[in-house]
Amino acid sequence: MAYVPVSSLRKSTLLLVPVAMGLLLGCQEPAPAAQGGEQLGELPPGDALLLASVKVALPPAGLTPADLPEPGSEGARLVTQYCVACHSLASPGSHSATDWPRYIRRMWLRLERLQDSFQLPLPSAGERQVMLQYLVDNALRVTASLPAAPGRDFFAATCSSCHELPDPAVHSSEDWVAVVRRMMDHMQEIQGRTLTPEQYSRIVLYLETVSGA
Ligand code: HEC
Ligand code: HEC
Prior knowledge:
Blueprint: H1 18-24, H2 36-41, H3 45-55, H4 74-82, H5 100-118, H6 125-137, H7 152-158, H8 173-191, H9 197-210
Helix pairs in contact: 4-6, 8-9
This protein binds heme C (2 copies).
């Protein structure tokens, strides 16, 4: 079992694995009986690895409905209602407008297959359209052509591993500092490693050079 990083599993709720099913049903936080590595360690090795592999790609924890863009809109309301059944609330900015349609298709597929056994609410076709439009309208703004400057290749390689390459023009150099710091937290949570101070400086310097503000 050495290859199953059970102790590093995140504690967000995921309703996929049979053993966890009854215990986690309807809870945002895992029930006490389902917490910790011990119970997960009792899963057959194949299931434990499957659960671990799904969990490393989940939206990071911590986003609240109030953090969403246009928090009072119908799209934000529906996303808050339907998109937290299995994992933390995802930010529309976590993917580009091009990527959202296929991401959300995977979510509907899972929801349709699981809603019966878990009695999850199923959105209507109209509600799905509103959610997709909301995610697309507020998606990550990306670019295919990055201005040349020192650090460009490192920025491109580092900042495209979870989403498409962000457009450096969307933030001022001041704002980029905070955004990159937040991305470092996501890297720690999702990828288990983050940037060294030297790598951080290289990326911030590139963004400061090309963001134009
Ligand atoms: C029925 C359970 C379920 C529901 C409901 C659900 N998801 Fe997911 N979601 C998953 C699973 C499982 C994964 C991990 C595997 C994957 O990425 O397909 C995931 C992954 C994700 C990811 C991470 C993908 C990545 O690589 O960044 C995003 C973003 C996401 N979901 C957004 C949403 C949104 C938006 C909704 C509502 C429209 C939603 N999810 C509803 C089960 C669900
Ligand atoms: C480990 C995964 C991951 C990596 C790597 C990553 N991001 Fe993100 N990014 C996210 C997630 C999740 C969101 C949505 C939540 C948020 O905004 O914090 C996001 C959203 C964004 C947004 C849109 C939100 C905003 O504030 O404008 C920008 C821009 C962005 N990332 C830039 C970057 C840059 C620059 C890098 C490289 C330093 C980077 N990302 C690397 C996961 C990642």
